[in-house]
Design a protein that fits this description.
- The chain is α+β, with helices and mostly antiparallel strands.
- It is 39% helix and 18% strand.
- It folds into two domains: 41 residues, Winged helix-like DNA-binding domain superfamily/Winged helix DNA-binding domain (Arc Repressor Mutant, subunit A); 74 residues, Lrp/AsnC effector binding domain/regulation of amino acid metabolism (RAM) domain (Alpha-Beta Plaits), CATH 3.30.70.920.
- It has five helices and four strands.
- The chain has a four-stranded antiparallel β-sheet with strand order 2-3-1-4.
- The two termini are 21 Å apart.
- The mean pLDDT is 96.
């Protein structure tokens, strides 16, 4: 049976999306409840898989990762062995922040965060040495206009 969230759960989730480090007291106050019911709802949503791991957002540019590339990949190979090697290569590369399999002319799109163009070339050379790729197009992001993981609850 699927877990059903109600309006109170949505309020709690909105608070957690805004700042998961805030105290239960603060969340309870914002959603108009007390601490124990909020804690119970959060626990149940974690058990149901609605709330995943919690982490911290780092400022990539402040840490020297100034280049963000979107990498479009076309492949002529669609066999399971190729896909397994490709996915293993992506998972092993910490530069890959996101990877999506697409419908349409492009097979995959990657979001790759590196320090500079030279670091991207090192990533690219390593990737193509691990798995054969038919065509790669790299697009350099000139400016990040919006980035969020928040869902429109």
């Amino acid at each position: 049976m699927a877990f059903r969230i109600d309006d109170m759960d949505r309020k709690i989730l909105k608070q957690l999306q805004a700042d998961a480090a805030q105290s239960l007291d603060d969340i309870a106050r914002e959603v108009g409840s007390s601490k124990t019911p909020v804690w119970n709802r959060i626990r149940k949503m974690k058990e149901a898989g609605i709330i995943g791991r919690q982490t911290v957002f780092l400022d990539a540019e402040a840490l020297g990762f100034e280049a963000c590339f979107f990498v479009l990949i076309r492949t002529s190979a669609h066999e399971k062995d190729w896909q397994d090697r490709f996915l293993a290569a992506l998972k092993a590369r910490p530069e890959v922040q996101e990877a999506h399999r697409l419908a349409g002319d492009i097979d995959y799109i990657l979001k790759v965060r590196v320090k500079n163009a030279r670091a991207y070339d090192e990533f690219y050379q390593a990737l193509i040495s691990e798995v054969r790729i038919h065509n790669v197009t790299a697009l350099l992001s000139m400016e990040e206009i919006k980035s969020t993981l928040d869902l429109p609850l």
